[in-house]
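dumping this here before i forget
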Amino acid sequence: MTERGGVDEVLAALADPTRRQLVDLLGERGEASATALAALLPVSRQAVVKHLAVLENAGLVTSHRAGREVRFAIRSEPLEATARWLASRAAEWDSRLAAIKRRAES
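structure:
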């Protein structure tokens, strides 16, 4: 998968406010079950499980079985790749805007 492809999946997954909340909660807690996360959100456990599946498919979360429950944790690599991509786009626009400013001032 190209970095751009991963960025597309990450941005699509993070477009939903509930999924962004889940990323924040997992970032704070380090690891949690869907049940524990659902207790902190105004959505059902089943909804949390569906959102976590989207995050996992985008590579943002990893899961593992711990006894009878499945525990989820954040993966920072896809977020870092997305941040790099966004920073490169910002740098390009900064350069373009600087060129426009130079032309306008000359």
